[in-house]
Specification:
It holds the Pfam family Glyco_hydro_31_2nd. It is a single chain. With about 900 residues, this protein is an alpha+beta fold. About 15% of the residues lie in helices and about 30% in strands. The chain contains 14 helices and 52 strands. The strands form 10 sheets. Strands 6, 7, 8, 9, 10, 11, 14, 16, 19 and 20 form a 10-stranded antiparallel β-sheet that branches. Strands 1, 2, 3, 4, 5, 15, 17, 18 and 21 form a 9-stranded antiparallel β-sheet that branches. Strands 33-32-31-28-24-23-22-34 form an 8-stranded parallel β-sheet. α5 links the parallel β23 and β24. α4 packs parallel to α5, α7 runs parallel beside α8 and α10 packs parallel to α11. It is globular and about 95 Å long. It binds 1-deoxynojirimycin. 1-deoxynojirimycin binds next to loops.
């Protein structure tokens, strides 16, 4: 028990007689007893769900029934906000487990559930404490420190003048300062708080768990820090309140643009998760208790957390008995998996604020080609519009958008343009006229359309919580409505926190009103997601019959955003510190279930040195979303401008990204079906290796065994790469071998080199022919890189589809497992057939594997000149002997096998194995 809580004086008790368990759902009443003995009723629902999940919801009876009075003639709803689930959850994974059983004894109630009754929920009645167990193992505890709080409704009692802080009757904490309970003024903005205090809070403890991860979006270490001061710790809680933060601080619990109130607690043998389903401003305090077991050593660490939200229900999911991977899957089932992006979305994007004219765009496009640098997408920031009016073009600077888009299309390239949620308030601008006449804008507290200041000056905001607003939004995107757009145009939704330049904390007043009369305070963190979701649905319906997977980039996000957008980390700076910070931030997006993430390559503010920009491209080649971007005041920095050796080195990094697109796409497919992060952290890949739990500066690409450690410090000539296991790791470029578990290894990293290793045991798919864009690589042949493990074996998967439509949902895809075992490499189908499988395979008939590279090939292969291929002739094998620390390798050229068919390449009997393990 820590010193902070007051568990015994918690005023919350569970009424034992109220408990009823039916079909996996427990209903009951928590009672809050005030100092004046008044009792407040808080209805409790505990749902026992599959895969070791449970959901606890606590509401407030009086507000639930609408039996309260609002102040200031407010039109706001009276209930606690109860629609967060409708936005964040998919509806899957919520089936209560009917086998749950309840027993009561001595002021405690216990529910067991799960296929082997292995999960237990123990509710202590007085005070109210909830413990979650897997078998005998206590995993998660609620309110053991007595921080549970549900601010019940009460009328404001006006005090006699001169006695400002006195109200009667009082509840449990007579010393509390009420000055901000009923109204709060901040920087000249007054929040009217018509429902008075209504916050919810709970302490959640993880006994025996030394590390917690999650709570995107923040800068700082992946393993979250303690927040109550002390050496290296934060001295404030992590805050979640989506904001347009200007020049954000590094290593800080300050809030950023998006929020995912999900946390994983991890220890050597177990992982558990907590999802706090609330869309209001939220704070999370973290402390750790170190204590010894039976007096031996420093042993066990407990992590204690304390979650507080300004309003809404207390609604939380606890997920037991997991690994990091299974937890991603469970959380993904609840909140949705990553939308499978079109292929161009995971290639390289070239952005700046701004490309100033259509001629400028065409010129940049030509210069990339002239410099032989691949790119897929060029972006237009605000200045393409006529006076910041979205859905228009500045016809002085962009007189011919169609011509520009056609030039891009000729190389299968795309254009992404910015559209923000603020709509310029200008008479005659059709979009705002429609917004107003149809009454689809967010309202102020008095019920009139809210007017605030953003890029266009005076603006209104679309209320995407309103289904009618979303339907209207769809009507703005068809090609005949949004003139100047072709089907290679996609959308960037920025400023959707929402950013309001003259609002409190650069956002909307909390007492603004949304559809359904919910206050903005209740939905603030969800708001950005409703907007990019609306854009997603609008883009799907641009033209009847044309069903392309939309690409949308969002700045603000909530749990569930992964279903329709990619994100980036906003306005970073051209500094080494910001480059370094991008790695844990992007890894953390994987924990959050929203892994399609990137940071502005080169840094948004400021001008990067050539070294920094070059290193940033190398790191960016390992962001799931790879986009360069720059502020309007910065110098031009397209990669071809830097000169040699920088341009050449950046081009190499980009070509590496393009060569590995098949591996990246396969990782995205995993994210889209199982919720796994696209780039994965050390603890995620090696959950049993304690030494790696705090490592957050190296990353693995999907399940490929590729391990990158981007250089993020100025002048570095080498990095230390930590290896958790005993397997051989090979340098990606020259096959130098590294091995030795549980320690760091020195890897040379002169400017031209990206430290990139391949873990033994994997097969990595690639495409090695350099092209202008990913679209032009569609029919290119594959290379398979077999990286042998110590047993001489390797395995990997490949997912391929048309990269642009939804036909994969009807089986139009190839999903293969490649396996080298007993000297035989086989390709096996692991997909499920659908109506469109056969037709798709026909289109892919001529796409072949043109090369097989075997890293750490046995020396007995030296004498082999060819290898037999099933269903075909033998293929030539060329063997390269080991040299110094560099492993031997072999290459088989033109084995003549299709990427979508079954085949076997026979390298010879397993007995011939002679794999180098000691170097
Ligand atoms: C803020 C965004 O974070 C930035 O990327 C963009 O360039 C500016 N808005 C202008 O649209």
């Amino acid at each position: 028990m820590t010193a902070h809580g007051k568990p015994d004086s918690s005023p919350y008790n569970l009424d034992g007689s109220s408990l009823k368990l039916k079909n996996g759902q427990l209903d009951g009443m928590v009672l809050k007893t005030l100092a004046n003995k008044e009792v407040v009723k808080l209805p409790l629902i505990a749902s026992l769900l599959d895969n070791g999940k449970a959901r606890i919801t606590i509401d407030e009876e009086r507000r639930q029934k609408g039996d309260i009075e609002l102040r200031h003639n407010s039109i706001a709803r009276k209930e606690r906000y109860n629609e967060a689930a409708a936005w964040a959850l998919t509806g899957a994974g919520l089936q209560p487990q009917k086998d749950a059983k309840l027993s009561n004894s001595n002021g405690r109630s216990e529910i067991t559930w799960g296929p082997k009754s292995e999960y237990r929920l123990v509710l202590s009645h007085s005070p109210f404490v909830v413990e979650f167990y897997t078998g005998e193992d206590k995993q998660v505890v609620l309110n053991s420190r007595g921080f549970m709080n549900v601010e019940h409704w009460r009328p404001k009692i006006d005090k006699p003048s001169g006695d400002e802080n006195e109200t009667e009757p009082r509840d449990v904490q007579p010393q509390e300062d009420e000055s901000t309970w009923w109204e709060e003024t901040f920087n000249g903005n007054t929040d009217s708080k018509p429902r008075g205090p209504e916050s919810v809070a709970m302490d959640i403890s993880f006994p025996g768990y030394g590390h917690v991860y999650g709570l995107a979006e923040h800068t700082g270490s992946l393993s979250l820090k303690e927040t109550r001061g002390g050496d290296g710790n934060h001295d404030q809680p992590y805050r979640l309140y989506n904001s347009d933060v200007f020049e954000y601080e590094l290593d800080s619990p300050m809030t950023l643009y998006g929020s995912v109130p999900f946390m994983q607690a991890h220890r050597k043998d177990s992982t558990v998760g907590v999802f706090w389903l609330n869309g209001a401003e939220t704070w999370v305090d973290i402390t750790k208790d170190k204590h010894s077991t039976l007096g031996f050593g420093s042993g066990v660490v407990d992590t204690n957390t304390h979650w507080m939200s300004e309003s809404g229900q207390l609604d939380l999911f606890v997920m037991l008995d997991a690994t990091p991977k299974s937890l991603s899957k469970t959380f993904g089932e609840l909140t949705g998996y990553t939308a499978l992006p079109p292929t161009f979305g995971i290639a390289y994007h070239q952005c700046r604020w701004n490309y100033v004219s259509d001629e400028d765009v065409k010129d940049v496009d030509r210069k990339f080609d002239k410099s032989n640098i691949p790119y897929d997408v060029i972006w237009l920031d605000l200045e393409y519009t006529d006076d910041k009016k979205y859905f228009t073009w500045d016809d002085m600077t962009f007189p011919d958008p169609i011509g520009m888009e056609q030039q891009l299309e000729a190389s299968e390239r795309k254009l992404v343009i910015i559209i923000d949620p603020h709509i310029k308030n200008k008479a005659g601008y059709q979009v705002v006229e429609e917004l107003k006449s149809k009454d689809l804008g967010i309202k102020n507290k008095d019920g009139n359309i809210f007017d605030g200041w953003c890029w266009p000056g005076s603006s209104h905001w679309i209320d995407a919580f309103n289904p009618a607003a979303r339907t209207w939004w769809k009507s703005l995107f068809p090609y005949d409505k949004f003139k100047g757009t072709l089907k290679n145009v996609w959308i960037w939704n920025d400023m959707n926190e929402p950013s309001v330049f003259n609002g409190p904390e650069i956002t909307m007043p909390k007492d603004n009103i949304h559809h359904g009369n919910w206050e903005h305070r209740d939905v603030h963190n969800i708001n950005g997601m409703t907007f990019h979701n609306a854009t997603y649905h609008a883009l799907i319906e641009r033209k009847k019959g044309e069903i392309l997977r939309p690409f949308i980039l969002t700045r603000s996000f909530y749990a569930g955003s992964q279903r329709s957008a990619a994100m980036w980390t906003g306005d970073n700076q051209a500094s080494w510190g910001h480059l370094a910070a991008s790695i844990p931030m992007i890894l953390n997006q994987g924990v959050a279930g929203f892994p399609f993430a990137g940071a502005d390559i080169g840094g948004f503010f400021g001008n990067p040195s050539k070294d920094l920009q070059t290193r940033w491209y190398q790191a960016g080649a390992f962001y799931p979303f790879m986009r360069a971007h720059a502020h309007i005041d910065t110098r031009r920095r397209e990669p071809y401008l830097l000169g040699e050796p920088y341009t050449g080195i950046m081009a190499q990094a980009m070509r590496l990204r393009y060569a590995l697109l098949p591996a990246w796409y396969t990782a995205f497919h995993e994210a889209s079906t199982d919720g796994y992060p696209i780039v994965r952290s050390q603890y995620y890949v090696h959950p049993e290796d304690e030494k790696g739990f705090a490592i957050d500066d190296q990353l693995y690409v999907g399940s490929t065994g590729l391990l990158a450690k981007p250089v993020v410090t100025e002048g570095a000539e080498s990095v230390e790469v930590y290896l958790a296991d005993d397997e051989n790791y090979f340098d990606y470029f020259d096959y130098t071998v590294y091995n030795g578990a549980g320690k760091s290894h020195h890897v040379a990293a002169p400017l031209e080199k990206i430290p990139l290793l391949m873990q033994g045991g994997h097969i990595i798919p690639r495409k090695d022919r350099p092209r202008k864009s990913s679209g032009l690589m569609k029919w290119d042949p594959y290379t398979l890189v077999l990286v042998l493990d110590k047993q001489g074996e390797a395995e990997g998967t490949l997912y391929v589809d048309d990269g642009e439509t939804f036909e994969y949902q009807q089986g139009a895809y190839i999903h293969r497992r490649f396996k080298l075992t007993d000297g035989k490499l086989s390709s096996e189908d692991i997909g499920t057939k659908g109506a469109k499988t056969a037709a798709y395979l026909k289109t892919m008939r001529d796409v072949r594997v043109e090369k097989i590279i075997v890293v750490n090939a046995p020396s007995s292969w030296e004498s082999k000149a060819e290898v037999p291929v099933s269903g075909g002739a033998a293929a030539e094998l060329i063997y390269h002997a080991a040299e110094g620390k560099k492993a031997a390798w072999a290459v088989v050229r033109n084995p003549g096998v299709g990427v979508g068919t079954d085949w076997v390449v026979d390298f010879g009997a397993a007995a011939e194995r002679n794999v180098r393990t000691e170097l």
